[in-house]
Design goal:
It contains eleven helices and 15 strands. By secondary structure, the chain is an alpha+beta fold.
Length: 374
Amino acid sequence: MDKKNTYLKTIIYSILISLFLFSCINKVKKETIASNEKNTFTIKGTTSKKIDSEYIFLIDKNETKLDSSKIEQHSFVLKGKITSADLYYIRLSDNSKKHPFILENSNYSVLINLKEAMIIGGDLNNAFFSYKNMVKTKQEQQAKFYQMFSYKDISLKNYLRKIDSISKKEKKELHEFILHNTNNILPSILLDHENFSSKELIQLKKDLIASNHIRNINKLDLRIEKQKNIELSKKIARRKTAPLFSGTNLLGSRTYLENITKGKKLFLIDFWASWCPPCRDASPKIKKLYEKYYLKGFDILSVSEDRSVTEWKDGIATDGLESWYHIYDDYNRISSLYNVTGLPHMVLLDEKGKIIKSKISISELQNELERVFK
């Protein structure tokens, strides 16, 4: 019964919205010519009967008030003039909820309740509204599948598959919408307010360049850099602290991990053995990176899994690896601590002694060194 009531309410709401849109669009079309001649904007609105607010405000993205109107008999009018189209908001005086729309010197019709506002008018805003309507449709689809999952009408696996499919379609439509609106401010606004991964932003940049649309490239570059920093911060927050250990060094004394990592921006733990051909092949590459970045704050501790101390020391001498720290892993204590199942196995730590990546490759190590020490 609850399901039927929910679907019925949705249908009734959709019909009412459609009627409102139809009447508003016709009305706005008739009034737009007069407004354009004056080069001003007029926003005429109606509030729901549940709203008791005395005023309604028109504000910009910096919370600066552009105009205000007293609400009388659930109606209001906002007027003014702007030099260029941009994102603005309307807000009731006793409600913090802001309703976004693209303001141009045109005519607008508004229907507003406590939670939502329907704002029709202006070419850019109507395009913006069509985009928001697409997003809302996708959200309603996700809500529908969640309801089906909560009633056990579909399995968790199918639910997650449906949600993922809807999210991918939404991202694709957003991508296409930006590419189709490169001659106006909509892409710039969406880049500020929508969630993108750095990978998605990089692909968008490639597509914009390929289609000779470079209007938003500089802003896109800044957004890519910002998103990369956000993603890196999240990765750092998830990093685990490297297990501490000590071992016998080449001089026969003890070397403690916590002592040699202090003051280092990046630190590499290199599990290796002289009998391991891939390890010996990697040694010259590691040595080259060490020589390039040591003075900048990079250091290495090689942990040997050799069969004997003699083989360990001979391997270091032969390859000329004496420049950094070395210890011997007797009885594989340390390799077990780091779940080493094969060699070579390199673990990169950050300046706080947390693991950036376990079993990092030479190319990944090089990229991280370049990023940190650029």
